[in-house]
Amino acid sequence: MARTQGSHSDITGPRIRAAALSLFARHGYAAVSMRQIAGEVGVQAGALYNYTPDKQTLLFELMRTHMEDLLSAWDTEAPQAGGAMVQLEAFTRFHIRFNTSRAEAVFVSYMELRNLSPENFELIEGLRRDYETRLEAILRAGAEARVMVVTEPRIASMALIAMLTGVNTWFREKGRLSLAQVEAVYWDMVRRSVAGEAGLGA
Amino acid sequence: MARTQGSHSDITGPRIRAAALSLFARHGYAAVSMRQIAGEVGVQAGALYNYTPDKQTLLFELMRTHMEDLLSAWDTEAPQAGGAMVQLEAFTRFHIRFNTSRAEAVFVSYMELRNLSPENFELIEGLRRDYETRLEAILRAGAEARVMVVTEPRIASMALIAMLTGVNTWFREKGRLSLAQVEAVYWDMVRRSVAGEAGLGA
């Protein structure tokens, strides 16, 4: 994307992204103008175009960055050793922690898929599939090692991701349960959902 | 809400609701004007106000109707006999079928919560809680009868509903699996997610 290098743009870029994300989350992409984003940042609308060619690119870059951050964070955090159940527990806890810490980006990434151009939609869908495939591989490995029962690994990966992302709709920092406790409750359900009879001993 | 009775309004009302739902789903509530909705229906903007006092009321009525339809459909369909596992299977299949058949209303109901006035938000949240409570009661009954293991019935109900609603994000009528097959895959996961060792015999 067109981007002016240099200190001005290096400082302004993150502020533009933050303002756009917050405004898109609050009002929806279609209802937010470049002028509004500029106003939130405290620059002239024209200054935005030094940073991004248009609103579509701004939305796409927000969603791309979110998905790439998610992928690289998991790839860094995924256990290097341990079987499929160890991987699945790590994935479960990682997904809840990452997504609750970026609720606005998660919301916009789901809600604004409809507002991406067809080419941009394909690219974001590809990244989303990459992430789902990480979980699918864990489920396939678990089924192969006979520590899990998973008849449809692809569908199971989407089902579990939807379940885990759902934490965002109700979790509050000051609620009855800490995030660690929430992780434990979900991990118990995830574990059971793929466990054969042998896997429920614990 | 203010509503002119009579044949004109009786015909126009459903068309206004359908147009508003479709436009809100496509562009988002904030980006859609009453004029646009009127244009889609083929009436003057002024005619809309015979039907609804404002756009907020229109959104609220769409969401209220959706939640009330969901609740009354489940209350009609819930098995009159059978234990908690029978109820849970019926709920699982019902939720997937109802929600995939009304994808736009489900999407708007989730996405536009942020655009409800505080009082309207409370009312819709109350209906949502009523629905979650139906599932929670099944899980509590199952745990009490020792046919299920559910440590946190409230959280489990939200987790399962999120998982089941997720079908909407990927299911396509002409896909590899029929809706009945999808129901079966999800029911297997739901059943396992709450099953103790004894429950996995099948």
From TrEMBL, chains A, B:
Q: Does the keyword RNA-binding apply?
A: no
Q: Residue limits of the HTH tetR-type domain?
A: 10-70
- Database matches in InterPro entries: Homeodomain-like_sf, HTH-type_TetR-like_transc_reg, HTH_TetR, KstR2_TetR_C, Tet_transcr_reg_TetR-rel_C_sf
Residue ranges: DNA binding: 33-52
Q: Which domain of life is it from?
A: Bacteria
What keywords were assigned to this record? Answer: DNA-binding
What GO MF annotations does this protein's record show?
DNA-binding transcription factor activity; transcription cis-regulatory region binding
What name does the UniProt record give this protein? Transcriptional regulator BetI
Organism this protein belongs to: Roseovarius tolerans
